[in-house]
From TrEMBL:
This is LysR family transcriptional regulator. It comes from Algoriphagus pacificus. InterPro entries: LysR_HTH_N, LysR_subst-bd, WH-like_DNA-bd_sf, WH_DNA-bd_sf. Belongs to the LysR transcriptional regulatory family. It comes from the Bacteria. Keywords: Activator, DNA-binding, Transcription, Transcription regulation. Residues 1-58 form the HTH lysR-type domain. Pfam families: HTH_1, LysR_substrate.
Amino acid sequence: MTLYQLEYILALDIHRHFVKAAESCHVSQPNLTTQIKKLEDEIGVKIFDRDAKPVKPTPAGEQILLKARQILREVADLKEFVLDEKESLEGTFTIGVIPTLAPYLLSMFLPEFVRSNPKTKLKIRELQTGEIISELQKGTLDIGILVTPLEEKSIREISLFNEPFLLYLPEDHPLSKKWHITPSVLDPNQMLVLDEGHCFREQTLAICESDRTRNNFGFEYQSGSIESLIRLVDKGVGYTLVPEMAVLFETDNERIRRFDSPEPVREISLVVQSSFTKEALIEVLRNSILKSIPERFQKIDQYIKVKWR
């Protein structure tokens, strides 16, 4: 039994003529006739008396038509409900943001987003990528903002922008004399990196073409904070890579070096469950973020997208 078959029997009840019923449904008369016959055979009841002129419902058919109208009304109501859900911005939504992005991106777009969308309440949590993926799949999180690609079948990715990696150096470091920086000049053993579990760590090691570091700093430091790494570099301990938003207002700082083109970048995206229906919320959130970031993030022509998985 299909919804199309229910629509066909209702059309035949209205027009009492197979050709006119088929025309009203925009199908051929043989197709409509065949589908109605299939429905009658499936339920074992004759819905129409074809010997009558014009054709008319049987007594049992009258009851079936009544139920068919009710079912199609409920289907129409469901479609309208889903459409309203897609277009509605009202409600409370939980968003997970990775720690290497939250301190910088949230302050850029969140104040204006809140002012412009007073009926949308956001609960924002700092979570590592693995936690965001897990909670999206469990349904305890609505949206994630993180680094992609994830290549998870159950998760939809909505790309936002590409953020460049920059090299952050201590004062008077030999590399500070170079204005043309390529990944080949980096020494993994001099690189300060984040703790395991952070995708930024894996991307940093990928740029250095290494799977781990062996530093000679005299200590081992497990950190989830880019700011902590920057402060160590300021004191002359090694060097590190930073996302551009972490030093957005310091790009003329002599300790910062941009990589030669093609620049290594990380792709930032919104992610949702494949079944997430709030398309209007995704669109408004995406536009709000894009308006708040530097224009150049959307105009980088030559880049290398650094994967972390």
